[in-house]
Amino acid sequence: STAIARRAAAAGAEVLLHLPMEAVEGDDPGPGALWLGMGEAELVATTAAALAAVPGAAGINNHMGSAVTADAKAMAAVLGLARARGLYYLDSRTTPETVGFRLARELGLPAAERQVFLDDTLSHEAIHAEFDRLLALAAGEGSAIAIGHPHAATFELLAEEVPRARAAGFRFVPLSELLVR
Fold it and tell me: CB under 8 Å to 41, separation ≥6 — which residues?
């Protein structure tokens, strides 16, 4: 994570910490995850350690996390640290019960919510349909936020479709340009 974050920042990319959090479904979010059973100090320390591994992160985004993002006390600990560090929060909206975006706004954090998951289903057709949905939302609303993962199928589709979308007048911007402040 550290080497990739440094390379991305050196290339001028905006870097986010994709912070693993406990999911309602019980899937393992991976090492360094936040769990509902953690106390406030442990949530903050675990988040701080993850931020240290991703130097230059401009914001935090949840990986999985439907259990944690629905818990106001847990999210207050995470978002309090984000506020203290001058970061923003992107809510992946892995559950309709998320309190992340609302709580971030209440705490005065710049924040945003994703509208599209590009690659929830890993087929060319499904990713293409979600990319088309992203463009339709952006055209209708003026902007839209998508989340994708580092899958070969996602990279292939983006390599094909982003130049076409740009030629059609769409702009791809860093998330910080779309934050609710």
Answer: none
Distance CA 105, CA 144 (A): 19
Q: What is the pLDDT of residue 65?
A: 82
Work out the burial of residue 46: count CB atoms within 10 Å of its CB; fewer than 13 is exposed, 13-18 middle, 19 or more buried. Answer: buried
What is the per-residue pLDDT for 121? 94
Mean pLDDT of the chain: 95
Question: How much of the chain exceeds pLDDT 70, in percent?
Answer: 99
Query: Which amino acid is present at 174?
Result: P
Q: What angle do CA 95, 100, 105 make, to 5 degrees?
A: 145
Which residues pair with residue 20 across a beta bridge? 63
pTM of the model: 0.93
Closest to 171 in 3D by CA, of 126, 135, 117, 121: 135
Distance CA 83, CA 69 (A): 16
Using a 10 angstrom Cβ sphere, with 0-12 exposed, 13-18 middle and 19 or more buried, the burial of residue 137 is middle
Mean pLDDT of 73-99: 96
> What is the arithmetic mean of pLDDT over 35-64?
96
Strands (E), 50-118: 59-64, 88-91, 111-113, 116-117
